[in-house]
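Sanity check record (used in CI):
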Amino acid sequence: MDDFSRHRSGCIIIHGHRQSKASRSCNWSSLPLDVTLDHQHLRPNQMRRWAHLRSPFGHNLPSPYARTHSHLSFSEDSKTMTRMETAQPYPDSPERFADWGQVLCKEGLSARCYWEVEWTGEWTGIGVAYKGISRKAKGNDSVLGYNDQSWSLRYHQGKYNAWYNKNDAAITVPYFNSKRTGVFLDWSAGTLSFYAISSNTMTHLHTFHTQFSEPVYPGFRLGFEDSSLTLCPFLAGLSSDS
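Expected output for B30.2/SPRY domain-containing protein:
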C-alpha cells in the first residue's frame, strides 16, 4: 500500500539499503551516503555533493521506439520526442499506447538510478510504470499515474501534481522557471523522487513510497502538439569538483 503523503523531511537516505546487483560496481567508499536537502533548495556545496552522487547513479535511458504513441516523433538520435499533429507511420504493436501521447523506455530498472529530462509544453508527465500497464484501456485508465501500475509527476499551468492510482497530491513550491526535472529511483527502498532543476537550485518536489514488485520502466507523456521532451545525457567521470 502506497504512502501517498509528501516526503516531508526532504531527505534521501542512501545509507543502510541493500545494494542491488547493478550497483555493486560503484565505489561506495567515496559516495556521500546521506544526501540531505536541508531546505527546499540546495546550496552550491550541496549541488556539488549531488553531482558526485549523479556520477555512479546517472542513467542514460535507452530510446523508447517500440512503446510510443503514434503522434510522438523522435529526433535522429532518439533522445528528443515531440508531440505531432499527425500520426507517424509506425507499425502496429501491442505495446503501443493507443489514446494518449505516452511512451515507455525499453529497459526496466530495478536498482538505484538517476536521470534528468528537459521538456516544454503543458500536461507533461514524467514517471515510471510496470511493463503490464494497459496501452489500450478507454478513458484515463492507461494514463501514467491513473492506475496502480504507474507513478507520475504532472505539470500544467505552472503547477505540479503527483499521481498514483487516480489520486493526486498538489505540490506547493515557490514559482521558478525550470523545465528540467530530475528523477531518483531507489527500487529496493521503494522510493521514487522528483526534483526541479535550475542553474543553481535543486528543489525537491515529491517522493513516492511504495514496495516495487517488479522492474519499472521510465515513461513520459506529452499532452499537446509541439510539446517536446529530451532525455539528458550524463558524462562519465563527473565528480564533486565539477
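Residues 1-49, 235-242 have pLDDT under 50 and may be disordered. If this sentence no longer matches the regenerated C-alpha cells, the check is flagged for review.
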